[in-house]
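Schema walk-through. Below, the input block comes first and the output block second. Nothing else is stored per chain. Lengths vary across the set, and this one has 167 residues.
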Amino acid sequence: MAAGTALRIGMVVYGDISHDSRVQREARSLAEAGHAVTIYALAGSRDGMASLDPRIDVVLRAPPVGTIVPGSPSPFRQVRRRGRWNGLLDRVRWLSGYTRSLRAWGRAVTAGAQVDVWHAHDFAGLVAVGGSVTPGQALVYDVHDVFVETGTAARLPRPVRWAIRAY
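--- output ---
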């Protein structure tokens, strides 16, 4: 694309966008620069986005029923009480289910979307849409949230933390 060409930008956030001022500011800046911006989010409320530029579209797409979403009970946040192997099995099941949920949500978001650039605002957004980007579309990952040495990520098994870093 030539410099100065307006782009169709799909910002993707696997969470509630209502109070994410950083994403809202970035979307506003892109809209002010003349780009068509659509924020695809898991949840949110236009009331919580009062300062959002009215030129910005917001598409809220809930995942299929029964999927694991942010805020779902996680065995990585719980104190282990079920024994080593049962705890490990719970974690593998949860991580597998979360990844399936992300991918399914990403496929639903990207299906038919007229976007030149996907802007993933978190690692979950990257995993969600990364496999669905088509030739001719760009993917930007705003890497500000991957801290595998702290928080919930620090409790992931070492091979999983390594895979996240590599990805």
